[in-house]
Amino acid sequence: AEGTADTSLCRLYRHVSHDFLEIRFKIQRLLEPRQYMLLLPEHVLVKIFSFLPTRALAALKCTCHHFKGIIEAFGVRATDSRWSRDPLYRDDPCKQCRKRYEKGDVSLCRWHPKPYHHDLPYGRSYWMC
């Protein structure tokens, strides 16, 4: 009689344990943060990202492959970026390292003059980054 009591207790334990795990899983799914950002259309994400500074964009690129792809594909520029949006300066390289702007560039370079600002009577005007 003792052996049958042990097996029925074991079956009850397994049943309770399974129910407990199932309920716990459902609660975890309800409480976990939703991935709303990944559900947004790309043009909305581009607009949101365009309001962010350089450091935040760099952090986003390191955080998620999806965000990195959007930043690079759409050429999102930070609010404090000094790369030119003017097509006249698109092909101008940095005066020091000869680097050219590429889509999605969120480099934190602070030393090289970046091409862009405007033409002055005595030549082009450059911003320092």
From TrEMBL:
UniProt entry keywords in alphabetical sequence: Ubl conjugation pathway
Alphabetized InterPro entries for the sequence: F-box-like_dom_sf, F-box_dom, FBXO34/46
The keyword rRNA-binding is annotated on this UniProt entry: no
Taxonomic superkingdom: Eukaryota
Keyword Glycoprotein: no
Limits of the F-box domain: 34-86
Stored PANTHER family: F-BOX ONLY PROTEIN 34/46 FAMILY MEMBER, F-BOX ONLY PROTEIN 46
Designated name of the protein: F-box only protein 46
Lineage: Eukaryota, Metazoa, Chordata, Craniata, Vertebrata
Gene: FBX46
